[in-house]
Amino acid sequence: MHVALLVASVLSLAALLTLRVYAAWQLPALRTPWDDDFYRAAAAATADKQGVFATARNLVLPHAGLVIEGRLNGYNDWLVAATKVRGALGISSNEVAFQTLNAVLLLLQALAILLFARWSLKDRALAWGFTFLYISAPVVFGTSRWVHTENLVLLAGVALSGLTAWLLGRGGRPRPHARLALVMSTGLAAWGIGLCTRAREYAAPSFIVLFLCTELVLLFRKRRLEAGVVATVTGTFMVPWLPAIVEALQVMLSKGGQSRYFHSLAEWIPHVAFYAVGPSFTIVLLALGVVVLVQRSRGLVQLLPASKVSVRRFLRAELSGVRPLVWSHLFLFAFYAAGFVWSRNRVTRPAVPMMLAGLGLVLIGIRSLPSLRAWLQRTPVKLVALALIAMSWSVLTYQLWFAFEGGKTYAHHGYRLEYFNYPLHLRPLKDPSDRHICFDGCPYDSR
After folding, report:
1. The overall pTM is greater than 0.85
2. Confidence of residue 20 (pLDDT cuts 50, 70, 90)
3. Which residues have C-beta within 8 Å of that of residue 363, sequence separation ≥ 6?
4. Residues ≥6 apart with Cβ < 8 Å to 86
5. Is the C or the N end of the chain the one with fewer CB within 10 Å?
6. What is the pLDDT of residue 319?
7. DSSP for 199-212?
8. pLDDT for position 429
9. How would you classify the pairing of strands 412-413 and 67-68?
10. How far is residue 205's CA from residue 211's CA, in Å, rounded to a whole number?
11. Number of helices followed by number of strands (H, E) in the chain
């Protein structure tokens, strides 16, 4: 069963990534007059006045000017870079360059998830299967076909959880001759964490909570060298980020009461489960998330001071390994969920940070529970994983080839819940001003 799951997962992931590259080069992309056209125009305007050296520098180093029209838009740096390399790669248009970039970002997500899942599950077949289920989630695969900042949000969310978990999961003090290697590896991880500051403003709580958790736990464990490196390297990114995030958050909070985007929970939850996170990945996150919380809570109760365990020993146990990050991700999930319930601006995208918080909770939680990890490697669990892969393909097949009459009637409404995984074959646009949009009498109304 191990070999069957491994082969099915690898082939499925390869087929899906190949389909994404084919779509980037051969199939029409969605166009609306709203966010995606705004990002295209902003990138083109920036590319006209920015040189190649500045473009490359902005991709890897901290810089100002992250806020564009009230949005924290580090994704713009990537779009500008795509326009710059377009000629060298023989790409015919900016649109194909943007879609190629998104395909690359999707590939980076797959690599990040694969490494994260392999570190957590310690099983190749399960890691590849988990990676496919994540990449096949409609909001992941579908978003990669939109020119949207969520492409960077998704990559940054996975990287942030994985890098902080890797830092805290390393054990022991290094030998004197290994200190240089320690500084370099920690600095590289901290650089990756710093790059995660460029995701959208609504993802800022994840960066703040996970960064503070990592710093405080490193200091508690007396790993001061690593704490200093993380603070120094990441701090260079935070200097231009702090004023930018304050500006962007003010704009975001002002939109929280816009009831024209309001949808009831009874409408939002099933839509997100099928058209955003997807049935297969929703089942994975819910089932494993509950098991992780039950197991971690059971261990927590056994270590309570009331059971004659000293407070010092209790704290040392709960701050060991990657356990602090389990509770940090649980806090983030609850925070994002509470913010969503409070807000009147209920579109599909708030599911993204909740999904990423749940993903971090599951993978880091499994790493902290060897007994659960061993149970997941049993044959019945791998049979279920195969069934989930089949379910994911059935959902993808419907959404990509058959929904909305195969794409002929697909249109995006500005105030409706988004269908990120739009059909592969959209209707051709009639002229340069035409867009795939609707207002009243949308295809959604007949559903």
Report:
1. yes
2. very high
3. 116, 117, 119, 120, 121, 130, 161, 165
4. 93, 94, 96, 97
5. C
6. 73
7. S-GGGHHHHHHHHH
8. 86
9. unpaired
10. 10
11. 19, 4
